[in-house]
């Protein structure tokens, strides 16, 4: 396999060590992500058959609801990613170890508080009203929610290891973890369909715990082998390390909250304004059109930390060439999206048959959404990589503020229906098509001032 990768690199004229490393991890990302996409696609019809449309809609909404709480890492994951990469680039092992230890212990403490609060809240909330479902599921939801909250807290801690791998230029590790989780989940749901009766509680408990076990295993392996010298230790937890990570992380924190509001509230809005069943076609269209974004992200992901290192070392020519290539990939991704819209009816028929009907208008709206995100993504990753994210933060924060009310207005006072929810999100992110490229041009040409340079 190494010889194959080397031949591909030689044929493409890839010469620098950084570019060779990126291309290697892009190759493996395609392998892992391709496997994940196939597994996740096969997972949908199996899950619908096991749970039925209503329960599957509840699970999708519940998953989105839990995703809102990713802000509890207060941006430390992204802050660790950038600061660890900088410390490694400057060959400062002690500083890198301090960042890892501080991030792990801080998020660990936060998750303990989160878990206590979630347990108290989960027994005082009528989850059937939250998810707009029948009282028949009340007992199951009361038992399931503490399990889901607990597993989420643990996952928030253990996911930090992927930030360490990515910052250390092992860009495909996150894809490998997702692949293992996706394939394992597919096997588990297949096993459930053969051995168990339909149960939202049983399904939710298994699918919440499984990713935690995978990530725990990776942490134990990493900190006993490759990253043994960076193993989290209380002695290395210091206020100044927290300030370094959190100083950058707080901006990522606000961006995370904004992204959650814009992208993870859709399922709950649809559930409340329509029904849990309507969440299913929406998510299927999202998953299908999202393939384009997944493929493009495989190319993008390695560049974040590589740009961080290149920017620290002032290798601006490499960054310019990298951005030119990413823009070309973005255009290819847009063409792929258009093709996907044209063949969508045939794909849906093969994929889910008559289990769910997906309106053409919904597919087109999803396509427009992904075209917008793909076109500004290269500039977004550059900005994230160098940490000049103040404008990025304001843009997403404003979008988050108007997203929910705009979604409700478009659904209630127009004939758009469910499509109004994704159209509202498109409107909120549209300014980024102008703001992010302009900021990149100013930063790379050293003409950025004020908000453009923060």
Automatic annotation (TrEMBL):
The chain crosses the membrane at residues 26-44, 56-76, 103-123, 143-165, 177-193, 199-224, 245-264, 284-305, 326-348, 354-379, 391-410, 416-436. GO terms for cellular component: plasma membrane. It is found in: Cell membrane. The keyword Transmembrane helix applies. Pfam families: Polysacc_synt (PF01943). Its main location: membrane. It is a multi-pass membrane protein. Keywords: Cell membrane, Membrane, Transmembrane, Transmembrane helix. This is MATE family efflux transporter.
């Amino acid at each position: 396999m190494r010889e194959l990768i080397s031949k591909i690199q030689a044929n493409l004229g890839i010469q620098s060590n950084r570019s060779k490393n990126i291309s290697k991890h892009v190759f493996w990302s395609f392998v892992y992500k391709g496997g994940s996409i196939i597994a996740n696609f096969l997972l949908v019809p199996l899950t619908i058959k096991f749970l039925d449309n209503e329960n599957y809609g509840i699970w999708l909404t519940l998953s989105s609801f839990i995703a809102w709480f990713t802000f509890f890492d207060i941006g430390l994951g992204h802050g660790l990613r950038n600061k660890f990469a900088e410390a490694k680039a400057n060959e400062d092992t002690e500083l890198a170890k301090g960042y890892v230890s501080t991030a792990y212990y801080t998020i660990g403490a936060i998750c303990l508080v989160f878990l206590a609060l979630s347990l108290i809240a989960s027994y005082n909330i009528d989850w059937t009203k939250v998810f707009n479902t029948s009282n028949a599921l009340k007992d199951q939801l009361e038992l399931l929610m503490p399990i889901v909250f607990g597993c989420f807290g643990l996952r928030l801690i253990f996911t930090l290891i992927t930030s360490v791998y990515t910052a250390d230029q092992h860009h495909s590790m996150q894809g490998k973890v997702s692949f293992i989780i996706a394939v394992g989940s597919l096997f588990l749901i297949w096993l459930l369909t053969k051995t168990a009766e339909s149960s939202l509680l049983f399904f939710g408990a298994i699918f919440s715990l499984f990713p935690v076990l995978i990530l725990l295993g990776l942490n134990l392996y990493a900190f006993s082998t490759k990253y043994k010298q960076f193993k989290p230790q209380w002695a290395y937890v210091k206020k100044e390390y927290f300030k370094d990570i959190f100083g950058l992380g707080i901006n990522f924190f606000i961006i995370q909250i904004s992204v959650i509001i814009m992208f993870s509230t859709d399922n709950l809005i649809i559930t409340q304004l329509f029904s849990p069943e309507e969440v299913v076609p929406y998510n299927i269209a999202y998953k299908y059109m999202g393939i384009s974004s997944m493929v493009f992200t495989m190319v993008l992901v390695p560049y974040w930390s590589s740009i961080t290192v290149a920017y620290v070392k002032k290798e601006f020519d490499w960054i310019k060439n990298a951005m030119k290539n990413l823009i070309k990939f973005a255009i290819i991704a847009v063409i792929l999206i258009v093709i996907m819209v044209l063949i969508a009816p045939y794909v849906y028929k093969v994929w889910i048959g008559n289990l769910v009907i997906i309106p053409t208008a919904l597919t087109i709206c999803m396509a427009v959404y992904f075209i917008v995100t793909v076109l500004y993504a290269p500039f977004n990753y550059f900005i994230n990589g160098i940490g000049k994210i103040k404008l990025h933060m304001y843009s997403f924060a404003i979008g988050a503020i108007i997203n929910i009310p705009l979604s409700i207005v478009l659904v209630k006072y127009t004939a758009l229906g469910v499509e109004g929810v994704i159209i509202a999100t498109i409107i909120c992110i549209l300014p980024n098509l102008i703001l992010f490229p302009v900021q990149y041009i100013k930063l790379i040409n050293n003409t950025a001032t004020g908000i453009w340079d923060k």
